[in-house]
Design brief:
Length: 109
């Protein structure tokens, strides 16, 4: 069950069903904005899971920790993301609101 200010309704799991619900309770523009948001954050998810936050230390030992254990998975995700994606991985260190604001989404859904 989904509870929103516009009402409550039963929603199925899955992207196509969610798009239908979003269009019904928000707008067609909300669906486009949602897809735009997903296109921006999905590439970052591989990098976010390649390096667990607990592996990041506050000293120079972080280099040995990351290089020894997580370098292969980080390298793999950077290769999959390409040069622009790898450089964009620094977005993970900034507030999520900056990513959302940079997309200039129009619908508040």
């Amino acid at each position: 069950m989904v509870y929103i200010p516009e009402g409550e309704f039963l929603s199925r799991i899955g992207p196509t069903e969610f798009y239908k619900d979003l269009e019904k309770y928000a707008s067609k523009n909300a669906v486009q904005d949602w897809k735009k948001l997903l296109d921006a954050i999905l590439p970052l998810s591989a990098t976010a899971t390649a390096l667990p936050p607990l592996s990041i230390r506050g000293d120079l030992g972080v280099l040995s920790t990351v290089a020894a254990r997580y370098a292969p998975s980080l390298l793999k995700s950077f290769i999959q993301m390409g040069p622009q994606g790898a450089l964009g991985a620094t977005k993970l260190l900034r507030p999520f609101s900056e990513i959302v604001d940079s997309l200039e989404l129009e619908d508040p859904f």
